[in-house]
Amino acid sequence: MGWTVDRRKCNTCGACVGVCPTLALEMNSTLTCDPALCNLCGICEKVCPVAAIKVVR
Questions:
Q1: Which one of 6, 36, 38, 42 has the fewest beta carbons within 10 angstroms of its own beta carbon?
Q2: Are 48 and 5 in contact (CB under 8 A)?
Q3: Are 50 and 10 in contact (CB under 8 A)?
């Protein structure tokens, strides 16, 4: 179980950050996820326009 981001695909648009219901995602120069807050809901994966996020349950 977990969450990964393909940094080669991620264009740092922030779409995932805006939809995260637990505020687990943060965008600075790269996308980061706080595993203590992430509930693996998969919303970020669904909204990513470049399919850079993968949630594994």
A1: 36
A2: no
A3: yes
In the chain, pLDDT over 70 holds for what percent of residues?
Answer: 100
Domains: count for the chain? 1
Radius of gyration of the chain (CA): 10
Strand partners, 20: none
pTM for the complete prediction?
0.90
Residues β-bridged to residue 46? none
What's the Cα-to-Cα distance from 40 to each of 5, 29, 56, rounded to whole Å? 13, 23, 8
Report which of residues 57 and 37 the model is more confident about.
Answer: 37
Q: Is 4 helix (H, G, I), strand (E, B) or coil?
A: strand
- The residue range of the domain holding 36 is 2-56
